[in-house]
Design goal:
- The protein is of the alpha/beta class.
- The protein has 2 domains: about 130 residues, Rossmann fold (3-Layer(aba) Sandwich), CATH 3.40.50; about 70 residues, Arc Repressor Mutant, subunit A (Orthogonal Bundle), CATH 1.10.10.
- It contains 11 helices and 6 strands.
- The protein has a 6-stranded parallel beta sheet, with helices on both faces.
- Helix 8 packs across helix 10, helix 9 crosses helix 10 and helix 10 crosses helix 11.
- The relative contact order is 0.11.
Length: about 210
């Protein structure tokens, strides 16, 4: 059973999200919290995933920078899939969906996030890409990455850590870091999230 903490500033929104999570037999609501109380509830409830309804007026970066979050997966629900979500995106964010997402989309995203996968609504991808720095003359996708680098990038999109990628490909972590460095260089990326977004845009991987 996947333990889910529901976080939203609105009591009504929290109640609605709890009801949605409860429709899945694979999920269990362990509690709910306002956004400024997430860290305290995590200490007490130890959830696997946080389903967070983000109001654009709140400082998402500050919320996600809490040490208490650790490696807990976060699924964001946002009213507007705008470029501003890129500013608060952190490694533990495993899903971005609009608040109008269906019950099925939300529960699947939570299950995927718990498994270490990354789920992005098509609208979120469209919103993120224009805000990523892209070289004026990008390298042709056919010349961009080697087959091995594409494999590594695909696993990065799945949310796998370097150690997990190394284990799956039966190579050393040092080699994985080398491949990631090469991917960053070829795609002109500065973060794993940016590399995944650019790779998806160029058709190198599917999300």
């Amino acid at each position: 059973m996947i333990r889910v903490l529901v976080a939203a500033n609105s009591v009504v929104v929290r109640a609605g999200l709890e009801a949605i999570v409860s429709t899945s037999s694979a999920l269990s609501v362990v509690g709910s919290a306002t956004l400024d109380a997430i860290d305290r509830q995590i200490d007490v409830l130890a959830p696997d995933v946080v389903l967070l309804a983000w109001d654009l007026e709140d400082d998402l970066s500050a919320i996600l920078s809490s040490d208490d979050l650790g490696t807990i997966a976060i699924v964001l629900l946002v009213e507007e899939l705008s470029g501003s979500i890129a500013e608060g995106l952190r490694q533990q964010v495993r899903g971005i969906l609009p608040t109008c997402a269906s019950e099925r989309e939300i529960t699947i995203a939570i299950e995927a996030a718990s498994a270490g996968l990354t789920v992005l609504h098509p609208g979120a991808i469209d919103a993120l890409l224009p805000n990523l720095p892209i070289a004026p003359q990008p390298v042709s996708p056919t010349q961009s990455l080697t087959p091995r680098e594409v494999e590594v990038l695909t696993m990065m999109a799945e949310g796998l850590a370097n150690k997990s990628i190394a284990r799956r490909l039966q190579i050393s972590e040092h080699t994985v870091k080398f491949h990631i460095g090469s991917i960053f260089s070829k795609l002109n990326a500065t973060s794993r999230t940016e590399a995944v977004m650019l790779g998806a845009r160029q058709g190198l991987i599917l999300l």
